[in-house]
């Protein structure tokens, strides 16, 4: 294998021309044009297009620079490896819902993948009240398939441990352990919040019932290896248009609690919902879009649960439990009850992890664009106070959540919605 | 490194003489005598003694034979590696309570360790109503120290993941997953039970509430990486005399649920308790020893809980949660509540895993000598029926267990003991 060298917009073309396995996706002998579109911190990202056809692809390469605090070159390369192996796994399990991987070069810390520039990262269009008619279907399929097929309900014990070993991802886990479950809820220099929320932030930090519940969610994240989770599945990790949905950036992937992924999707929709109190002053327009968002939340969970259970029934080869274990008079009902209890557990965890993530966006290292794009701090505080109340309830009252309506009900009760 | 070759009672002496690092524990130039004392299946075990002093040691070497169904040479060698690295970890965390490791030779699949032939495996002396005045103290120290110091309450997130990666132990886990949580409770050719228990065994297999609870315990075993557990801590894995206790054979070690280890110790004491209905016909003698055993159970849990909490307070450097997280008015009480909830969780899991293991000993691949040494099948069935009732309650009613007295109470209610 060649040694590592960082590419530029010229050498990337030479690299691609010398990689014959890419001939299916790019005309390697035809004219090509490359432009760097990354944020230049950890990775560089090139979009490479054939001038003579509509063929194109993306080259993502880890950079050996120390531009971000606490980051180092071996970690950046490791991150690229986790992203690539998760992308390959997601392509296998949820084809069409993630960018295709065309080529991986470990020595070059480089992955060549599908160009998604016809799609938009979801945050901005959601703030612009755009609708995604297939999103609930697509994301529930992604969640059901990636989680079910990497769980002990599908895998054998040996297969699961091999997957777990492949995805032991300590440094990326630590980022979430610190910045989702810990630092936002105590004094830590990187925390940022709306100064109008001082009282609320201090109240969260001193709320023992909430802190205990958050500690339980962190224990779940650190120790419950239920399935291979994306582990950073906010709406900034989803690109979409009206027809297509693609989940990107899975470098945090490891075997963790399923509810963390579902909770990430749902809480980001709630934060977007709350942001419209500022972004959409017209009451009717706002209510209509907010009702759409709550409908999305309901649909995503309902479809996820139905698809997860259908996959289980159709692919019941895992060792938790083997089909034969339920082979007795009454066993079919017991297996149905086991599936029901499993989904009830995932819903409680969805609320707990989603609530923790909602809270950390209000008082941790980084908020979400839906909220930070509200220029007026008083208007922003309206949404943020509601997020703190809803997030706190999702975490603390998660064991009283028995249906998606219970979870949505907490949004409605706090936001006084009619939906 | 030299290639693998199986040793015999002559070549083992040559091997030791050529290993100068052992000079502290054996006089390498003095006369030596070696005898093979293993069961000859997977490993051979030599006791090597100096003729001229009381110095001695044990050599354990994996054997490349296919004598046991489903076993193979790479797995046997892997097993030796897990045993050795767990022994080293246990020596570090609980010195004096495990055999010392003097030397490890991976190429030879060989470990040289402390000779424990002055101690007895606990099962037979417990059947003979022997008492171990330091056992509760020793085993609770072993449990508290090995579990606390390998948990997220002590380790950083990065340290814990490194430990977890080192102890991904798929084949040995699968043995427990199959033979503790699954096969005993369905039709499987290796299952053995007292023919007088046909009705009870069939009833367990058809008891949906119990099967659901057992599935939940298996999920805990497969996915809850709380700490490095021994994972086979029955009284056949403990050697003792009146002064000393040594935990042996940790080849099943992996990061799993803490309650599995504590449950193993306690349920084996219950099985021994029940065996005395046959082994000790004299009522007063029996009641006295049974009361001693229940006292042991109470002491082991009580001391474990006190030691675990004391270690936590004295070594609060883990990331679940960092000390600073509880640094606010009322935080000290919240941290105390977190410790209380954690120990309550471990007790429920102790009951659940202990109950599952008690049940599997009645109807799975292998029982325990305490019970199988009862020659009369009708007498044996008395103990076994009680074990099935107690084990079932420990599993199904575990969430109603709030103190060690609740757990012991179920033994007393079923066995009609006077306590």
TrEMBL record, chains A, B:
It is an enzyme of class 2 (transferase). GO terms for biological process: methionine biosynthetic process. The keyword ATP-binding applies. SUPFAM superfamilies: Protein kinase-like (PK-like) (SSF56112). InterPro entries: Aminoglycoside_PTrfase, Kinase-like_dom_sf, Methylthioribose_kinase. Its EC number is 2.7.1.100. Transmembrane segments: none annotated. Gene3D superfamilies: 3.90.1200.10, Phosphorylase Kinase, domain 1 (3.30.200.20). Residues 34-275 form the Aminoglycoside phosphotransferase domain. Keywords: ATP-binding, Kinase, Nucleotide-binding, Transferase. GO terms for molecular function: ATP binding; S-methyl-5-thioribose kinase activity. Belongs to the methylthioribose kinase family. Homodimer. PANTHER family: METHYLTHIORIBOSE KINASE. This is S-methyl-5-thioribose kinase. The lineage of its organism: Bacteria, Bacillati, Chloroflexota, Caldilineae, Caldilineales.
């Amino acid at each position: 294998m060649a040694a590592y060298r960082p590419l530029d917009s010229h050498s990337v073309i030479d690299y691609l021309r010398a990689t014959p396995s890419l001939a299916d996706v790019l005309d390697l002998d035809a004219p090509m044009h490359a432009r760097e579109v990354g944020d230049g911190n950890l990775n560089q990202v090139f979009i490479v297009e054939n001038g003579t056809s509509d063929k194109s692809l993306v080259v993502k390469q880890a950079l050996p620079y120390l531009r971000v605090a606490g980051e180092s070159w071996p970690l950046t390369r490791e991150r690229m490896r986790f992203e690539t192996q998760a992308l390959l796994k997601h392509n296998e399990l949820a084809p069409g819902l993630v960018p295709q991987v065309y080529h991986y070069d470990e020595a070059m810390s480089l992955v060549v993948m599908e160009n998604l520039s016809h799609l938009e990262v979801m945050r901005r269009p959601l703030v612009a009240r755009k609708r995604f008619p297939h999103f609930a279907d697509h994301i529930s399929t992604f969640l059901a398939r990636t989680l079910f097929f990497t769980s002990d309900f599908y895998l054998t014990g040996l297969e699961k441990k091999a997957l777990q070993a492949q995805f032991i991802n300590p440094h990326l886990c630590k980022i979430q352990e610190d910045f989702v479950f810990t630092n936002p809820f105590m004094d830590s220099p990187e925390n940022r919040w709306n100064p109008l929320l001082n009282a609320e932030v201090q109240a969260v930090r001193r709320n023992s019932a909430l802190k205990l519940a958050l500690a339980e969610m962190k224990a779940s994240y650190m120790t419950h290896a239920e399935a291979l989770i994306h582990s950073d599945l906010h709406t900034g990790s989803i690109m979409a248009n009206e027809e297509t949905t693609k989940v990107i950036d899975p470098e945090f992937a490891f075997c963790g609690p399923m509810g963390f992924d579902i909770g990430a999707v749902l809480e980001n929709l709630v934060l977007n919902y709350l942001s419209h109190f500022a972004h959409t002053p017209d009451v009717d327009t706002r209510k209509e879009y907010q009702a759409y968002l709550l409908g999305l939340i309901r649909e995503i969970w309902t479809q996820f649960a139905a698809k997860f259970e259908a996959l289980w029934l159709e692919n019941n080869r895992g060792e938790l439990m083997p089909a034969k274990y339920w082979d007795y008079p009454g066993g079919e009902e017991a297996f149905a009850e086991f599936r029901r209890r499993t989904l009830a557990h995932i819903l409680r965890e969805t609320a707990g992890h989603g609530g923790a993530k909602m809270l950390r966006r209000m008082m941790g290292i980084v908020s979400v664009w839906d909220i930070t794009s509200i220029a007026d701090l008083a208007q922003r505080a309206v949404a943020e106070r509601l997020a703190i109340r809803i997030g706190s309830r999702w975490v603390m009252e998660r064991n009283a959540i028995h249906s998606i309506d219970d979870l949505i009900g907490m949004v409605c009760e706090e936001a006084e919605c009619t939906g």
